[in-house]
UniProtKB/TrEMBL annotation:
SUPFAM superfamilies: (Trans)glycosidases, E set domains, Glycosyl hydrolase domain
Domain Glycosyl hydrolase family 13 catalytic: 144-597
Listed name of the protein: Glycoside hydrolase family 13 protein
Alphabetized GO MF terms: hydrolase activity, hydrolyzing O-glycosyl compounds
UniProt key word Hydrolase: yes
InterPro entries for this protein: GH (IPR017853), GH13_cat_dom (IPR006047), Glyco_hydro_13_lg-like_dom (IPR004185), Glyco_hydro_b (IPR013780), Ig-like_fold (IPR013783), Ig_E-set (IPR014756)
UniProtKB keywords: Glycosidase, Hydrolase
Protein's organism: Candidatus Blautia faecigallinarum
Length: 701
């Protein structure tokens, strides 16, 4: 054998030996304030980057950013760990960095992907200049309300049966609050309104809610209101009706031109102004309680009832309204829409609909500067006095225009308009898939967190797809898939977006999480309503809530989830809140978990590290340099042991460590009675009951 080959063999053996000695599990850094400060730097600011190793375990650590390599220095040694630091200057472009660790002949790298022997720079940490999200939104507890189904505070504004026609049939007033929604229930109204929200603010405050997110509340003919009729006004059926009249549609008549009562209610400026005033009073009361409020903005499309289109001829001939684009070729709103036939007026039905739905006219921003500016003004109007809303949730935001380039420009302008009116407002988008291109600091603040929360949690705990349309045995209890999905998708949400991302178990578009715990594929159209609540597992529901309230982001409770509401996907997920029939125990569990989330700062700002996992088992830590939360999940239908290396959160391995259990949920219930456990040399041994969640806390002396 040649001498050079012998040397290479010896070197490889040495590297293998060193790999056994180098404690790669002790290597850690991330984008939290504990490892990078300031967390949201401006160009020209000095940024301190930190890195952790086992004490005396490496020869050197370098911070590598672009073509610059900074040797890091130890600034403190605590609990058997060395903490390194180096400084860089923030530029006006995205700063990318990773760490290079030297030990003897070994060089390894650390980035979002963790430790590797070969550098993968696409996993580099990133800092975005001028990217700041409102502090109030970081880790805030949100509560989503589908207004028509929450609480009827004012029966005088209820939609009447036969008040108007929509999608081929008349509107229906539902008098039985607990009735299951019909499969085609878009015309059913249960009477929930803003007065109902006002009446239940005490309940929401006692629950621990910090932010109320309302599904659309602007004038609209549907109960979901994603088909806006007038962006300038709150729907009087949610607000206040001060001018009314007779005039339901005659039997068999489907022409809304004849729907005098509806026309009066939704076009009379006295009703519209009174409804806006009521909304202003609601936001004032919410703010007086120290809470925030977010509105749903549906700007991709409007509704066929919209005053700009007026397909239903509701506004035709009225003195306060210009003719709609459907009605007249001379309408000032003609450019707001795309018409395929320019010779069909009056009453031109050839406009483009979103996904071909003629009830959802697609808005044509590219060809209408007037529409573009109008919607920017709407964005400003509702975050300004007297309404002072605290932000927007943007429906199907990436679909707004006909190209990505156009969409990016619109959202840049929308952000400027909204932030100039209210710098502390949040812009939160509905988005499926990788959102990185929209989260550069000049468009959206954050997103509804499907990829890095709802979907991985649902697959792991239930094996169900989020609509209950599919069950996958290969993902049920698959903690490796859970960890892989979280690591991949959390990387796309850098820290400012991650800490404000809306973490939901359920919402108005997907089945109720409690229903998913029965692991049954189904929709109400063929499975029936009862199937949604058969065989549900309340202990798994509590496991989901335990993860929700301890995971990075803004935990968002969909109204009624906390009370035990079940339901398959839309429309069954929009059942009414069960006032008087609530699951009191589940509400109490939510209260206690929300209190835990709010009482321990590391749950809003701390680092996250996976500590242990196997089939149906998972443990992760949330931690700072001196405080630690340990969350352990056993999703098996049997008791089992877990051996967890909690030292990875920075807890000492030199001495015994006493942790306090602050929550235990198990098959038959839960308790927050405090108990202590002892970790030996940084290792915690637990006996986990079936279907359980345990949460432990430790703070260094």
């Amino acid at each position: 054998m040649k001498r050079e080959n012998i040397d290479i063999t010896k070197k490889m053996q040495y590297i293998l030996n060193m790999r056994a000695v180098l404690n790669k599990d002790a290597l850690f850094s991330d984008g939290t304030e504990y490892y990078r400060s300031p967390a949201e730097p401006k160009p020209g600011e000095v940024v301190v980057i930190r890195f952790r190793t086992q004490r005396n375990n490496v020869d050197a650590v370098y911070l590598v950013s672009g073509d610059k390599k900074h040797k890091m220095k130890i600034y403190k040694t605590v609990n058997g760990f060395d903490y390194y630091a180096a400084k860089i200057i923030m530029t006006d472009e995205v700063v990318k960095y990773h760490f290079e660790i030297l030990y003897g002949w070994i060089t390894c790298y650390y980035n979002h992907h963790g430790v590797s022997m070969e550098l993968q720079d696409w996993f580099d940490f990133e800092i975005y200049p001028n990217y700041d999200t409102p502090d109030w939104a970081k880790g805030a507890v949100m509560y989503q309300i589908f207004v028509d189904r929450f609480y009827n505070g004012d029966p005088t504004n209820d939609v009447e049966t036969g008040e108007y026609s929509y999608i081929g049939d008349i509107s229906i007033r539902v008098d039985e609050w607990n009735k299951i929604p019909a499969v085609m229930g878009v015309r059913e109204f249960y009477g929930g309104d803003l007065k109902g929200v006002m009446d239940k603010l005490d309940y929401l405050q006692e629950l621990g809610v910090e932010v109320i997110y309302l599904n659309p509340v602007f004038v609209s003919p549907s109960n979901h209101k994603y088909d806006c009729q007038d962006y300038d006004y709150i729907d009087p059926h949610y607000g206040k009706i001060v001018e009314d009249c007779d005039g339901l549609l005659p039997h068999g008549d489907k022409e809304n031109f004849h729907a005098k009562k509806y026309v009066k209610r939704v076009t009379d400026l006295k009703n519209l102004e009174a409804s806006n005033q009521l909304f202003a009073a609601l936001t004032e009361e919410i703010h007086a309680r120290g809470m925030k409020i977010i509105l749903d903005g549906v700007f991709n499309h409007c509704g066929s009832f919209n005053k700009w289109m007026d397909r239903e001829r509701i506004y035709e001939g009225q003195p306060d309204y210009a003719p709609g684009a459907y009605v007249s070729a001379d309408s000032p709103y003609r450019s707001y829409f795309k018409f395929s036939d320019e010779n069909r007026w009056p009453y031109n039905p050839t406009y483009e609909g979103w996904w071909t739905h003629d009830t959802l006219p697609k808005l044509n921003y590219k060809d209408s500067p007037e529409l573009y500016e109008y919607v920017l003004e709407i964005g400003k109007k509702w975050v300004s006095p007297p309404y002072n809303v605290d932000g927007w949730r943007l429906d199907v935001a990436a679909d707004l225009g006909y190209s990505n380039e156009f969409n990016h420009q619109f959202w840049k302008d929308f952000r400027k308009a909204v932030k100039e009116a209210n710098p502390n407002a949040i812009i939160l988008a509905e988005h499926y898939g990788n959102p990185e291109g929209w989260l550069m600091g000049d468009e959206w603040d954050t997103v509804m967190n499907y990829d890095a929360f709802m979907e991985p949690v649902t697959w792991f705990l239930t094996g169900m797809e989020k609509h209950s349309d599919e069950y996958r045995e290969d993902l049920y209890g698959n903690s490796e898939a859970f960890i892989g999905a979280m690591r991949t998708h959390m990387r796309a949400l850098h820290m400012s977006a991650l800490t404000t991302a809306m973490n939901e178990l359920s919402n108005h578009d997907h089945s109720r999480f409690l229903t998913r715990t029965n692991r049954r594929v189904g929709r109400i159209s063929y499975a029936g309503a009862e199937a949604a609540s058969q065989g549900v597992n309340m202990a798994v529901m509590r496991e989901g809530v335990a993860i929700q309230m301890t995971w990075p982001g803004a935990p968002t409770v969909y109204y009624g989830d906390e009370a035990g509401v079940c339901g398959f996907t839309d429309p069954d997920n929009r059942r009414t809140y069960p006032w008087g029939h609530e699951d009191k125990s589940l509400i109490e569990f939510h209260k206690k978990m929300i209190a835990i989330h709010k009482n321990y700062r590391v749950l809003k700002t701390g680092s996250t590290e996976f500590l242990w996992n196997d089939y149906q088992g998972l443990c992760y830590g949330r931690f700072s340099h001196d405080e630690h939360i340990i969350v352990v999940i056993n999703n098996r239908d049997e008791e089992r042991e877990a051996v967890i290396e909690i030292w990875k959160t920075g807890i000492t391995r030199l001495d015994d460590t006493i942790l306090e259990r602050i929550m235990l949920s198990y098959r038959d219930g839960f308790t927050d009675a405090k108990e202590t456990v002892t970790a030996k040399a940084g290792v915690l041994r637990l006996i986990m009951p079936a279907y359980s969640a345990m949460i432990f806390h430790h703070k260094d002396e």
